[in-house]
Every structure is written in C-alpha cells, then in structure tokens.
Amino acid sequence: MLQKPRGTRDFLPDEMEARRSVEAKLREVARRWGYREVCTPEFEDLELFTMRSGAGIVEEMYVFEDKGGRKLTLRPEITASVIRMYVNEAKVAPKPIRWCYFADCFRYERPQKGRYRQFWQFGVELIGADTAPADAEVILLAADMLDATGVKYELKVGHLSFMKNLLAGLDPVSQRKVMGHLDKKDFDGLAATLGEMQEPGLARALTDLVECRDLQSAFAIAGEIAERERIEKTISLLDAAGLKYTLNFGIVRGLDYYTGFVFEAFADNLGAENQILGGGTYRLAKLFGGDDAASCGFAIGFDRVMVALGEVKQKREPIVAIVCTPEGRSRALAVARAFRKAGFRTETDLMERGIGAQVSHASKTADYAVVIGKRETESGEVTIKDLKSGEQKTVPLDEAIAGVKINGPR
RNA sequence: GCCAGGGUGGGGUAGUUGGUUAUCCUAGAGGACUGUGGAUCCUCCGACCCGGGUUCGAAUCUCGGCCCUGGCCCCA
Predict the structure, then answer these.
(1) Protein CA A95 to sugar C1' B73 (Å)
(2) Of chain A residues 197-236, which have a beta carbon within 7 Å of strand B?
(3) I need a labelling partner for A9 at 20 to 30 A (CA). Which of A62, A143, A158, A398 fits?
C-alpha cells in the first residue's frame, strides 16, 4: 500500500476542525493588532536561503531542480520570503509595515515529537520601525497570541548586544564556537575552548551573563553597551504592560541575522522539541537588495502548539439528520433546506435506507433526527427527536428549528 | 546521520518453545424487519509493513529495507 512521505501527516475532519479553531484564534489576535496576512510561494530560489544561512542548510532542505534547470527549494521558513517580498513589492509602502502569515514549511530532518518534515508556522513581521515601542509591540503580540490559544508556556527574552560586547575581541569563528557552548549551557566545554584561546577570563563573565536574570546585573557583567537606553526603554514597556517573562541573555538563535532583541517561548508539556515560538529583531532587507530596513518578527510552531494543547474539547455545533420515508422524501429536502438556511449543519439520507436504519445511523452522527414520513407530510409538521435523550415531539417546522437553536448540541 | 523500543483488517486486540481455514471487540456494507430497528438475529467486507534467508512448513526464527514512537545531533 502507498504510504505518505516520512514526516508528513494526514488530518481527518476532527483534527482539522481543532486546527482551524486554534488558527482562527491566532488570526483574530493578529487582526486586532493590525497585522494583515500575506502569502509567498511554497518554493523559492535556493539562493534566498543559502544567502542568509550558508550552504550548510542545503542538507536540511528539500532542494530540487525544475525543468529549466533552476535550483529551487521548498521553503524551510517564511521570514526570508516575506522580506524578499517586501524588497520586491512593498519598499515604498508606508512604514511601519505589519504583516502576518500562516503557512506550511518543509525541512528534511529526523521526525520526532513535535517535529515533522512538513509543518506549519504562524508568524508576524514588523518592518521599518526601529524603536523600543516596535520591539515591545512584537514581543507583547507574541505573548498575546500564545495566550489566545490557551497553551501553557514560558517566555524568555534576551538581547544579543551583551554577548556581542563580551565576545568583541574574538574572531567570528571563535565567537560562533563559544556561542555554541552557551546555547547548550555547556560551561565545561566553554571553559576548555576559552582556555585554548588564551581567554580564560571570559568564561566567568559569560557564565554569569547566561545565568543572570536582571538587566542591571547584565549591564554590570557586560560593560557599557551602546543600545543601553533602547534596551531599558523596551523592557520598561514590557513591564508596564504586565508581561510575564524572564530575561535570559544566553539566547543565541543562530545570530546570523538577528541584531538585537531575541525571544523564545517553551511549552511545559512537550518532549525534547518544546520550543513553540522564536523571534527577534533583524536586518535582512539589505541582504536581498533592498534598503537596510529594521525588522522584528517571530514565528509560532503551530504543530507544536497543537501537540501541547493535546485533546482540547471543541465547541461543537448541533448536527441535524433528516430521516424520511419514501413518500416524505421530497418534503424532507425542503425541510433540510430550511434547517440549512437557519445555519445548521444538516444531512439527509443518501443510502435509501429504511427509517429504522436511518435513525440508527443518525444516532451515531447527529444530535437531532427530524422525521418526515407520511403522517408529517399530511399534517405539515415535523417530528423532531433528541437523539441523546430519545424524547421526541411533533411540532411545526419553525418550532423545531427554534428548538435546535435553543438547545444546541446534545 | 546515530541510539532505543515498536509495526496483525479502518480503529483497538489475541496468537510468537515455528504447525490446519489467524481470535475477539468495534467500525463499515447488505438482509430479515418496514414509523423510531438506537433493539435483536443473520450474512458479507477487511490484516500478519516490504523483500531475501533458514525450513516440509514462518505472523512467529534470521538478515536487510521502509515506516511509527521517543531520544541524540541539528533547529535558519
């Protein structure tokens, strides 16, 4: 039998309804903050991603050549595409630009809990606002969106300038190596590496910085930082808004294109892959041939949020099954039309079953059965049966519709 | 790429010191019945992940692959 490709999933209606419901909550929050949806191609020139992250990421992507010999790739993330789109289409749009997206991405990695080869991201990008209120808005929006889904998480906020300041004396290759240790909290490896570099004194400062949880201490450890005022202003805006977060100056996030604030959120109840959101401030537009617009954005790992939420009880709408005898069938269609017009999900028998078998089927798939037989056709009424309690009554159509409206799903 | 544990009808399972036609529940289809059959009874549908090996004989033992679950690496 044919199988779906490794790391992909099929979604049955129950799961799709749950996903769409969470998606709708995210969309609604984005809408309220003024972030409007954009859409970019599912595949892009390979160069778009290698330009930014180096040739190494080719191993982690779905790369292919089209019939014209173009090197293309299924997008592994969407920020790069959005910024390319900004440079191509919207350079002169009034700033700030507030955009969001919800779309699937592809990475060729080993699947595990919360990690799939096709996965969905809900992200936002704020382009062209290089201020403390801009940074604060994006971080607050991130929290607002996660809160809307009901997921339990911890938000960590950091800023790269502290670490950059401490590492300013090292060459880029050494910086990268040191940050690798810090990202993994590998302090033994850190001390060893710095020892080799004749910089043993740095180990203590970096360890302190990574464990430090307040701004004043961080400044004390890292020394004077040019962005100090901007950082303090942003943090005070977060505090004033009552945001729940912890400061963490060990967040690295690959550094390649992040320039200032970086933040991540982690779900409490996931496995090894528990990061559900990541973002920060960055400058990518210039790399893609545009102006040097400052940007700030994040992406939510939608599938991980769904895993973290687990089996959530969905609010369900009532389902009506029309049950009829052969002589009632044509009126049954009119009755079904009336229920649908009233907004209810309404299904009729397509199997030409007997009335008993229809009720039997309805009891598994619906909340109400509306019986249209010879008697109802003659009287002009309908018999409505509550499939949970078994109670039924024969009433005018309007009354039956009103009853479903009042009582809801059973 | 590496490690561990798994893979039996659509879902859930029994069966593995090798031995008839692979068990049961559920779901699905059909019938009896023809206004509640949502019951009861009957029938049908449908599985040993794939391939090689050992054997008279493999779901069972063995090797390889694929896939699943979780972990490592990575995580833009």
Answers:
(1) 41
(2) none
(3) A143
Q: What per-residue confidence (pLDDT) applies to A125? A: 98
A12 touches strand B (CB under 7 A): no
CA-to-C1' distance for A110 and B74, Å?
A: 9
Integer Cα distance of A230 and A136 in angstroms: 11
Distance CA A72, CA A67 (A): 11
3-state secondary structure of A390: coil
Q: What does the angle CA A136 – CA A140 – CA A107 come to, to the nearest 5 degrees?
A: 100
d(CA A372, CA A324): 5
Structure tokens belonging to residue A354? 């007997």
Which nucleotide is closest, CA of A183 to its C1'?
B75
ipTM of the complex: 0.86
Q: What residues have CB less than 8 Å from A146, skipping those under 6 apart?
A: A153, A155, A265, A276, A277, A300, A305
In the chain, the amino acid numbered A156 is: K
**ω before A96 within 30° of 0 (cis)?**
yes
Which of the nucleotides in strand B have any atom less than 7 Å away from a protein CB atom? 1-3, 27-31, 33-39, 49, 66-76
pLDDT for A42-76, tens place per residue? 999 999 999 887 777 888 899 999 999 999 999 99
Instruction: Give the architecture (CATH level 2) of A13-309.
Output: 2-Layer Sandwich (3.30)
Tell me which residues from 256 to 275 on chain A have a beta carbon below 7 angstroms from nucleic acid strand B. Answer: 256-257, 271-273, 275
Residues A301-307, mean pLDDT to the nearest whole number: 94
Residues 72-131 of A with CB under 7 A from strand B: 76-77, 79, 107, 109-114
- Indicate the domain borders of chain A: 13-309, 319-407
